[in-house]
Specification:
The protein is an alpha/beta fold and 251 residues long. The protein folds into two domains: 154 residues, P-loop containing nucleotide triphosphate hydrolases (Rossmann fold, 3-Layer(aba) Sandwich); 69 residues, no CATH class. 35% of the residues lie in helices and 24% in strands. It contains nine helices and ten strands. The strands form two sheets. Strands 6-7-8-3-9-10 form a six-stranded mixed beta sheet, sandwiched between helices. It has a four-stranded antiparallel beta sheet with strand order 2-1-4-5, covered by helices on one side. Helix 4 packs across helix 5. It is globular. The chain starts with a strand and ends in a 14-residue tail after the last helix. The structure holds adenosine-5'-triphosphate and magnesium ion. Adenosine-5'-triphosphate binds next to strand 2 and helix 1.
Length: 251
């Protein structure tokens, strides 16, 4: 289980996380929704130890990760696969080299690395693209290569930051199916950040909404659809009218 306790983070004057509390259960798919710039990616980066909070704790099982040494944190991070917003592939490496990237730190021999790369590309429906450079791949293929990289070292947890954003509806649904498939076959715990509500409803056991630096609601997709919380209602209906006001300086 992952437990986020009273997490606070400020960048200069920008007070982004203002006391996030969240428990993530083993084996579930939990999705975090919320407006642009509300801190979803920042929260995800704290969970994997890429950012340090100003205040608050993060537990994975009984280990508190914000106070780990760099070496201990490195070991902890091996439990995680991370699909970065925008894929973040290395352009100078081939698809296969991208997938293999983290495996070189895991003491695997070259033959095993090759097999793992091939298996993971197979998992995401991209067998045989090992030698292709990212520039030659479509956006959806890049996401899938990034996903193959995220699952390459058998993570216990996979973080997906906007896995379906920018994809056509059919490709987006193929990614949804893949997330569900990976959860079922690899028994991973999935933490997803998305604006794509149809994806959130389809893949999630639970959905949490981040607003004003806090988790303001948490429930099953059915509970979220029937919510009486005015903020959540406005967000899921995508209306300009409601308690959430756009800050025009963001434009
Ligand atoms: N490394 C950083 N340094 C300074 N400010 C940052 C940093 N990372 C994020 N921020 C700020 O924190 C706020 C939250 O950013 P974050 O990327 O978490 O938003 P988000 O909810 O993921 O938005 P989107 O849906 O657009 O991806 C933003 O105002 C952003 O500018
Ligand atoms: Mg983001």
């Amino acid at each position: 289980m992952i437990k986020v306790e009273d997490l606070h983070k400020t960048f200069a004057e920008n007070y982004v996380l203002r006391g996030v509390n969240l428990e993530i259960r083993d084996g579930e798919t939990i999705t975090i929704i919320g407006g642009s710039g509300c801190g979803k990616t920042v929260l995800l980066k704290h969970i994997v130890g890429l950012l340090k909070p100003d205040k608050g704790k993060i537990y994975i099982n009984s280990t508190e990760i914000t106070s780990l040494t760099e070496h201990e944190l490195g070991e902890y991070q091996k439990k995680f696969g991370y699909l970065f917003q925008g894929s973040a592939l290395f352009d100078s490496l081939t698809a296969g080299e991208n997938v293999a990237f983290g495996l070189h730190n895991m003491n695997f021999n070259e033959k095993l690395i090759k097999k793992k790369v091939s298996d993971c590309l197979g998992h995401v429906g991209l067998s045989g693209v090992e030698d292709i450079k990212p520039a030659e791949l479509s956006g959806g293929m890049k996401k899938r290569v990034a996903l193959a990289r995220a699952i390459a070292y058998d993570p216990e947890y996979i973080c997906y930051d906007e896995p379906t954003t920018g994809l056509d509806p059919i490709m987006a649904d193929a990614i949804n199916e893949l997330i569900i498939h990976l959860q079922k076959t690899l028994k991973v715990t999935s933490i997803v950040v998305t604006h794509d509500l149809s994806s959130a409803y389809k893949i999630s056991n639970r959905i949490a909404m981040l607003y004003d630096g806090k988790i303001i609601t948490l429930g099953s997709p059915e509970e979220i659809k029937k919510t009486s919380n005015e903020y959540v209602k406005q967000f899921i209906t995508g209306s300009i009218n409601g308690p959430i006001k756009l800050k025009l300086k963001e434009f």
